[in-house]
Specification:
Number of helices: 11
CATH topology of the largest domain: BirA Bifunctional Protein, domain 2
Radius of gyration: 42 Å
Shape: rod-shaped
Helix content: 25-40%
Number of domains: 2
Order of helices and strands: HHHHHEEHEHEEHEEEHEHH
């Protein structure tokens, strides 16, 4: 058999074997067998130099053509096998691509004000209160008149309240304004529901103030409880439960006489300082948080004034039969006290370095 015939035989045999290869591993074995360094075809090429001069050209060409043909066949068959094996692997290792990544991508965090609001809500919901909301653009009737605010009260002045254009008369009950507290929600809630009622009203409020401890827009949570036989002791017990849930089980509350138009009697409520003992820090210095007093003011409260109940008498509230208490606190103040925030404006600066501290 001539060398050219031998090359043709090897080529046919290799092409048939390559086409029949059933896996990438088997194909690699065939590539080594027919095209490897010690394979028959390369050995034939190395023997071309020993042939007579007139045979060297045809044999060399035949051998190179066979080598290129086999390399192309291996490459084509490798692509076919890789595609088939990928399909088999995908079928075997099926996954649900709709599942979240591991670990899931960070989706951000609650702002400190929102987190504090929800924490306060959780405490009162646990006590049986319902969360209610109302409009931020309010009528003077709900913001002042129904809450027993006298005509001479300074909060009615345009310097203390944002009136909405066109500016109405401050004493006009239909004057439109941005609410200065969430107390109007209490009146609206009583109009919708007869006693007994236990609600808290969180939300944004607006006043023309701006400094380190005041902002023209801030957040409040106000609470209302009306039923028969409610006393100031019920208010004290409720607020004691609240401050211990927020500031720690060792906290106490103190009530001091005050005046609010919509409560009588009215009180300012303090919580025992959680930064010191009796106004003195562990280092023996005057406490900077409570200013050495041992108490920190956190909210205003009192028993609902009978005139407020009279404003909703048509909805089942009898001032001679029902009693209740109300309280109101600034969410920002609670957040600042609990987390040691020195300046109210930090809560609104949107500085990620500050906000990321509270995860």
């Amino acid at each position: 058999m001539s060398m050219i015939e031998e090359i043709s035989r090897v080529r046919r045999e290799a092409e048939a074997a390559i086409a029949a290869a059933s896996s990438s591993e088997q194909l690699e074995e065939l590539r080594v067998r027919y095209l490897g360094r010690k394979a028959q075809l390369p050995n034939l090429l190395r023997g071309v130099a020993q042939l007579p001069p007139d045979e060297r050209g045809p044999v060399g060409r035949a051998a190179n053509e066979a080598r290129r043909a086999l390399e192309a066949a291996v490459q084509a068959r490798a692509a076919e096998l890789a595609a088939r094996e990928l399909e088999q692997r995908l079928e075997r290792d099926r996954i649900d691509v709709t599942l979240p990544g591991d670990p899931p991508a960070a989706l951000g965090r609650l702002h400190l004000i929102t987190a504090t609001r929800r924490e306060i809500e959780d405490v009162f919901v646990g006590l049986g209160y319902q969360v209610v909301e109302g409009p931020e653009v309010e009528l003077a009737y709900y913001n002042f008149d129904a809450l027993n605010t006298p005509a001479s009260h300074p909060s009615r002045l345009p310097t203390d309240t944002f009136y909405v254009e066109p500016l109405g008369e401050p004493l006009d009950p239909d004057a439109v304004l941005l609410r200065v507290h969430t107390s109007p929600v209490q009146i609206r809630a009583m109009e919708r529901q007869p006693p007994p009622i236990f609600v808290i009203a969180p939300g944004r409020v607006y006043r023309p103030d701006s400094d380190a401890t005041h902002a023209p827009q801030f957040h409040q949570v106000e609470g209302l409880a009306v039923d028969e036989g409610i006393t100031l002791a019920d208010l004290q017990g409720t607020l004691l439960t609240f401050v211990r849930a927020i500031f720690g089980e060792q906290r106490e509350v103190r009530m001091r006489p005050h005046h609010f138009p919509f409560t009588e009697p009215s009180v300012e409520v303090d919580v025992s300082c959680f930064n010191c003992a009796g106004g003195i820090t562990p280092a023996g210095e005057r406490c900077p948080l409570c200013k050495g007093d041992g108490w920190i003011e956190i909210l205003g409260a009192g028993m609902v004034d009978p005139n407020v109940l009279a404003a909703v008498a048509a909805h089942g509230y009898d001032p001679d039969r029902h009693q209740g208490f109300a309280f109101g606190m600034g969410i920002e103040r609670i957040a600042m006290l609990k987390h040691g925030v020195p300046d109210l404006r930090l809560l609104y600066d949107n500085d990620v370095r500050f906000l990321e501290q509270f995860g």
